[in-house]
Design brief:
Blueprint lengths: L12 H5 L6 E5 L4 H9 L3 E4 L22 H12 L4 E5 L6 H13 L4 E4 L18 H10 L18 E5 L15 E4 L1 H7 L5 H4 L8 E6 L4 H11 L3 E6 L5 H13 L5
Parallel strand pairs: 1-2, 1-3, 3-4, 5-6, 5-7, 7-8
């Protein structure tokens, strides 16, 4: 029988404590640190549903979401359909997006397990050393995105490097777009907010370095494409790029040509 309420219940540490113990929890966006710490302390396995966890046909999501929809949120539903989860916690605050709120309603209507909404308004920045490190950009992005599963930052961090290129935006669904960037790429946008554990910091998200060539990236159909395009227009050496489900050869060629023409790579 379908659930009567469209809006999923709110999630807090108090609400979690009232439910039966979990073993596997899916998260969407970045729940507040106190919620993640609660799960860490109970050794709950956290699955980042925004990430590419299940490699199968995206058409499985067609009965639940429009095909013309953010690929990351379609990936959330795809993962939820294939993983054995005890609960799902969705950040529906300003650190994620309104679309995530509606996806939470879809998940709550589809599954019998608890689906709860939370709002991450955390303001205690923990720093973003990996965003500024000399490191393969794909490996760097893996470290940053994996960090959402822990309430605390890594115990050790790399030294910063002088940047020669910039990547601004959200972590892409398809990391292959990152393969052309030099190891001296600094990361900006929501990904830097993510490493800092303050996803709703709009001022930090809008920050960029005008002295280095920068790719302003967003997923196709994501609301952040508007901000990416706006900031790219303000930057003297910018490429605005949006990519849907998978990175096309055309998108890769644009990134490679941009980085070569601006001298970021040779």
């Amino acid at each position: 029988m379908k659930k009567k309420n469209i809006i999923p219940p709110a999630c807090s540490v108090l609400e979690l404590n009232r439910l039966k113990p979990f073993e596997n929890v899916g998260i969407v966006g970045m729940p507040p640190v106190d919620v993640i710490r609660y799960l860490n302390e109970r050794q709950v396995v956290i699955h980042d549903l925004d990430a590419l966890l299940v490699r199968t046909d995206m058409e499985y999501t067609a009965p639940y979401l429009p095909r013309v929809y953010c690929a990351v949120l379609r990936t959330v539903v795809l993962n939820a359909l294939h993983l054995d989860l005890d609960a799902i916690i969705v950040d529906t605050g300003p650190g994620k997006c309104n679309s995530a709120f509606h996806v939470a309603a879809v998940l709550d209507d589809t599954f019998a397990l608890p689906v709860m909404c939370t709002r991450n308004d955390d303001r205690a920045a923990v720093g973003a050393p990996f965003c500024r490190a000399r490191m393969d950009l794909t490996e760097k992005m893996v470290v940053i995105t994996e960090g959402v599963k822990s309430a605390d930052p890594p115990s050790s961090s790399p030294d910063p490097c002088k940047p020669t290129a910039g990547f601004w935006g959200v972590p892409p669904r398809d990391f292959s777009i990152l393969s052309f960037f030099p190891d001296t790429t600094h990361v900006y946008g929501w990904t830097r907010c993510m490493e800092n554990k303050i996803p709703a910091d709009a001022e930090l998200e809008a920050y960029f370095n005008p002295d280095i060539p920068t790719v302003f990236f967003a997923q196709t159909f994501c609301a952040k494409t508007a901000l990416a395009k706006l900031l790219a227009g303000r930057h003297p050496k910018a490429l605005f790029l949006d990519v849907d489900v998978n990175t096309t050869s055309s998108a890769k060629a644009k990134v490679q040509a941009f980085l070569e023409l601006t001298g970021a790579i040779t």
